[in-house]
Amino acid sequence: MNNSMLVKKTTLGELAKALSKAAEMLLEIEKQISEAPVEEIKPSKEKKEFKEPELQEVTIEQVRTLLAEKSQAGLTSKVKELLGRFGAEKLSAVKPEDYGSLYRAAQELK
């Protein structure tokens, strides 16, 4: 037997020992997990109502800027139509609580 075969045999033997040791460790971990107490998770009795996250408050200045951009882009008639959907002929007549909805609707204008 030459030296290279002896080295390979030794290396394979060491590898086999290491794999055997790893297998023993895995079996021990499996045993510990299977012996661990199992805790039952019970669903909560109280109902939690899902709420949409609050949207950032939109200011009249933000709406005005966006509507001006849309108007300058040639969408003046669509801007006026959009204001009408909110019951207004001009931005100052839009209710402050509608600014967010108006802003999002204006973003969609094309």
* Low-confidence segments: 50-54
What characteristic shape results from the CA principal axes? elongated
Distance between the termini: 83 Å
What integer value in Å does the Rg equal?
Answer: 35 Å
- Helices, by number, come to 3
Number of strands: 0
Residues in β-strands, percent: under 5%
Determine the mean pLDDT.
Answer: 83
Category from helices, strands and their pairing: mainly alpha
How would you summarize this macromolecular structure in one to three sentences?
The protein has 110 residues and is an all-alpha fold. It contains 3 helices and no strands. The chain is elongated, with a radius of gyration of 35 Å.
Describe what you observe in this structure.
This protein is mainly alpha-helical. The protein folds into 2 domains: 1-36; 60-107, no CATH class. The chain contains 3 helices and no strands. The radius of gyration is 35 Å and the shape is elongated. The relative contact order is 0.09.
Would you spell out the secondary-structure blueprint of this structure?
Elements lengths: L2 H33 L24 H26 L13 H9 L3
Label this structure with key terms:
2 domains, 110 residues, 62% helix, mainly alpha
